[in-house]
Amino acid sequence: MFTKIQTPCLILDRKIFNRNIQNMKSVAKTRDLVVRPHLKSAKSRDVARISASVFGPQATVSTLKEIACATAAAHAKYHVISVRENDIEIWERFGGW
Is the pTM of this model over 0.70? Predict the structure, then answer.
């Protein structure tokens, strides 16, 4: 079944993925929590898109490049703000994942 898949790759069971998303949404709502999925683990625009459609645009990333990769299809440029130095840089769109 998986002999022709190039690795590394992400393989998700859509039923389990959707069930887990709904479970997280239910628990978060019950406990009045905000879910910020970590996008680096999946490295997938589709996972980022689905997460955003369920939990909103907030997400957790380790680097600015990760958020740029995850959202590359939606933005032509990024305004990167450095809190420590009060700088604003404009980055071109990344090719992404």
Answer: no
